[in-house]
What we know:
Largest sheet: 7 strands, mixed
Radius of gyration: 21 Å
Amino acid sequence: MRIGVIGTGVAGSLLLESLRDKPGFELMGFERVVEGAREDAGTGLNICPNALKALRLYLPARHEALRAASLPWRRWFADTATGERLLDLDLLDVAEEPGVRLRWSELYRLMRAPVADCTQYGHELVALEQDAAGRLVPVFSRAGTLVRHGGFDLLVAADGRYSKLRALADAEPVPEHHGLAMTRLLVPAAEDCPYDDYGQWFNGNNRLLSYRLPGGAVYIAGAFPISGDIAPEQKTAAHARAMYLPAEAAPCAAVAWMVEKTCAMIEQLHWARLQVTPLQRGAANGQVLFLGDSAHAMVPTLGQGATQAIEDGVLAAAVLAKGGDVAAVAALRDARVSFVRQLSLAATDSMWPGADAVALTRLKGQPAFLAQLRQLYTDVPLI
């Protein structure tokens, strides 16, 4: 079976690594960026325990490498902006092992290294054709020249939320926006940061989320409600102070530190609107398989974006290795992904305008939500 993987980020690289030594497969990966580009790009992310379980079950060497390059994520706490504790969760109460914290650039390096020899870099997908046997032929632009590598029995779209392959093979998905502005910031030198593990801080419905990363860096994410597009005046230091600092009391040390760094680095914030795209697993009569954000971009509230890409990569490979097809991948994955998407959106409830953020955050420490977290973090099958 000849498989071409478009995008060698998380899901694409893991699928290639999982299948490369299996008999009966010819594999090629195609990456838009040139080799070595963006080695320092991106901010930070947390990988949840369910992704670590998937790697432990299917790619133990990758599990070990990821743990070695990361900081452990053992704790999830949530406070008000003045420092009142609302939630303090030990992940080992709901998971089989901790999660991890690292930079996106390091995650990409770890995923791509084992499959560099079967990856074509600097290849930007621009069109799809068919060969005489009816197989799909991806057409790439490389250094201004159109390049073809022949027909493939299966093309895998692992090229992210704005997947070019999904747009060409089916249609560009229409996102659904949910009325929150999201910011991301990497503070590269943060020795004076007054906290370590994964924390959230609420000022009304406005939330800061932050944690330390390897190498002395800190990741800070902000979120606040909006009614439409993000207005220019909302991208200012004055607006950040109004959103995250309590009006009638002193902020706790953590919030004061995060707001100071955010205001000082306001031009370096990455902005986005909270959105999802419809779940779709395949197209072109089973000749195209969608994985990761190409298949099911979701809200980041529970940190499941990259985590589900890891599950997708190793589990789809396991299905294909046993002779399965796109429909078999969908049968294994889509109910699970729908549960994760629904739970992630439901967990965003404390940030909706007018919601009681304090009460709703406290509920996340109660048995009903903890049972859902346990399902989220442990329900990874061995097939």
